[in-house]
């Protein structure tokens, strides 16, 4: 899943950001995958992901949807997208998926040495590794890095830089708290891998530094 490879930020911040995908494949394990994906989803709920979505019901953990509704929506071919904010949670989730042994593809995105270390600890050997080669072209037209660390957490680019700036402005004026601001930023992300826990930390660091004349 290359759309999760381009997350930006400091190494310290990215240490708390791991995306996990569960993907049935047409022609291999698509037919009859619904019950298997449902069992994996039940497991992942117990591992306290920072955010999660299933492709059959694209509503994240903060949309008010009940777990029962999510599980009932799962059919053959359903895909799970989620994100964890600690390596320990990711390790527990991967260990649980390994024990279930449902035969469904698992993809993890994060700092490559951290992910490979976790895999080695639980006896997994990744067969494919994709790396981001960075941004090329008219980089002068991009928002600054402090804004991109938010926008790149949505793999489909649904978090607008203007929304990030608006949330920062509202927090700075005392109209919004850090967590609610993070949930507002997570809402447009239909791939379910925007990490509001990491976002809250980044806002806490960034808001005091921002001045309105920069906008």
Overall description:
It contains nine helices and four strands. The longest helix is centred in the middle third of the chain and has 14 residues. The radius of gyration is 18 Å and the shape is globular. It has 215 residues and is of the alpha+beta class. Helix 2 runs antiparallel to helix 4, helix 4 crosses helix 5 and helix 7 packs antiparallel against helix 8. The protein starts with 10 loop residues before the first helix and ends in a 9-residue tail after the last helix. A four-stranded antiparallel β-sheet has the order 2-3-1-4. It has two domains: 120 residues, 2-Layer Sandwich (Alpha-Beta Plaits), CATH 3.30.70.260; 76 residues.
- DSSP, total strands: 4
Q: Report, as a whole number of angstroms, the end-to-end distance.
A: 34 Å
Count of individual domains: 2
Bulk shape: globular
User: How does the major sheet shape up?
Assistant: 4 strands, antiparallel
Uncertain segments: none
The helix/strand order is: HEHEHEHEHHHHH
Q: DSSP helix count?
A: 9
CATH class of the largest domain: Alpha Beta
> Strand order, biggest sheet?
2-3-1-4
Given the helix and strand composition, which structural class is it?
Answer: alpha+beta
Q: Which strand-content bin applies to the residues?
A: 5-15%
The CATH architecture category of the largest domain equals 2-Layer Sandwich
The Cα radius of gyration reads 18 Å
The CATH homologous superfamily name of the largest domain equals ACT domain
Q: Could you say what the CATH topology of the largest domain is called?
A: Alpha-Beta Plaits
Q: Give the integer mean of the pLDDT values.
A: 94
Specify the helix fraction band: 40-55%
